[in-house]
Design brief:
The protein is α/β, with parallel strands linked by helices. Helix content is about 40%, strand content about 15%. The strands form three sheets. Strands 3-2-1-4-5-6-10 form a seven-stranded parallel β-sheet, with helices on both faces. The protein has a three-stranded mixed β-sheet with strand order 7-9-11. A two-stranded parallel sheet has the order 8-12. The structure holds nicotinamide-adenine-dinucleotide.
């Protein structure tokens, strides 16, 4: 029988973290969740508002680089699992101001690893330290990205888990560095780690600076839709709900010390995506300020070092853990567009925080 877990979710007020918390509370209501989030511009406690009253959830506003705080929380809550989402995550911001990326993504991950190692070494094997019925099988789940592998040409084979790292932006380099630390903590100390590399996510609660929410909102406002370069860059898109299901499987059944790619098997060029989204919004929102929405598409100067293509080989997670994506891009994009149409109260207050970046 499954034992309840006590999970520290870092970055649980961000896009994927909050979707993960929603997913987990619904599926495992007996688990204890502790969300630690600094509430940077990308974090929003509103993302968890409907859960805080009902779920077995505690929210702490704080920084993963704060070692004393992390130590205290691990001990107070007898944490056995860390699901590590907290990061600076926007490539454009990493080009403009990389320092925060090094601090949070590298130093923050190191701080968590070191605190969790000591916690695990002191308490992990002593059953008496845990509340009755709580598993002592510790896990550190590193939620990483396909961007650490670099960029693919049009005909290159997809990235596998053994592809050499070749990050191209300060964001992906800082994530790559943190992955190496996670690997080293497994190899050196035996810390029970798991690492996942996911492709581009989309879905509800996505901060309006990222491509899909940005385009949805600009279409609703009748503002230009900025597309980098000629729009030919290709990304592999996965609905965030499918990502959460994959993380669930990796946490429960993944082999300790291993890495797993999580992708949508769904490669789409940026321009095709934006055009499709325009058509979906034309259909869902008859009173758009500019119709057809495709008239708003504007090509802008390309991002420096812009990766041309990402594609993930997901054979390992499919064959070992039986996971594959379930939400088609057509259905997922429509559901996401509808969510932004239905939730102006969520995104309108966030628009000012978004203005400091290129898009
Ligand atoms: P996000 O930017 O939406 O959320 C990040 C969260 O971390 C925010 O709530 C923020 O307040 C918090 N945070 C930032 N710095 C912190 C700090 N020092 N201490 C505590 N909290 C801090 O990011 P996201 O898109 O939800 O991504 C989550 C994770 O998934 C990241 O590690 C990212 O690298 C990875 N990832 C994202 C995608 C994607 O498409 N969004 C794809 C693959 C992997």
């Amino acid at each position: 029988m499954r034992q309840p877990r006590r999970i520290l979710v870092t970055g649980g007020a961000g896009f994927i973290g909050s979707n993960f918390v929603h997913y987990w509370c619904k599926k495992y209501p007996g688990d204890r969740l502790l969300v630690l989030d600094a509430l940077t511009y990308a974090g929003n406690r509103q993302n968890l508002a409907d859960l805080e009253e009902v779920a077995n959830l505690r929210f702490v506003q704080g920084n993963i680089c704060d070692r004393a705080l992390v130590d205290r929380l691990l001990q107070e809550e007898a944490i056995d699992t860390i699901a590590h989402f907290a990061a600076e995550s926007h490539v454009d911001r990493s080009i403009l101001a990389p320092a925060n990326f090094i601090q949070t993504n590298l130093v923050g991950t190191f701080t968590l690893l070191e605190a969790f190692r000591q916690h695990w070494e002191m308490r992990g094997k002593r059953e008496g330290d845990y509340p009755e019925g709580v598993t002592a099988s510790h896990r550190f789940l590193q939620v990483s990205t396909d961007e650490v592998y670099g960029s693919l040409g049009a005909n290159d084979p997809s990235f596998t888990e053994t592809t050499a790292y070749a990050p191209n932006s300060p964001y992906s380099a800082s994530k790559a560095g943190s992955d190496h630390l996670v690997r080293a903590y497994y190899r050196t100390y035996g810390l029970p780690t798991l690492t996942t590399h996911c492709s581009n996510n989309y879905g509800p609660y996505h901060f309006p600076e990222k491509l899909i929410p940005l385009m949805c909102i600009h279409i609703l406002l009748g503002k230009p839709l900025p597309v980098y370069g000629d729009g030919s860059n290709i990304r592999d898109w996965l609905h965030v709900e499918d990502h959460c299901q994959a993380l669930d499987l990796v946490l429960h059944q993944g082999r300790v010390g291993e890495t797993y790619n999580i992708g949508g098997d769904n490669q789409v060029s940026n321009i095709d995506l934006v055009q499709t989204l325009c058509d979906v919004m034309d259909e869902l929102a008859p009173d758009l300020p500019v119709r057809p929405a495709r008239r708003l598409i504007t090509f802008v100067k390309d991002r420096p070092g812009h990766d041309q293509r990402y594609a993930l080989d997901i054979h390992k997670i499919t064959s070992e853990l039986g996971w594959s994506p379930t939400i088609t891009f057509t259905a997922g994009l429509r559901q996401t567009a509808q969510w932004y149409l239905d939730h102006p109260d969520w995104w309108q207050p966030l628009l000012s925080a978004r203005k400091t970046v290129i898009q």
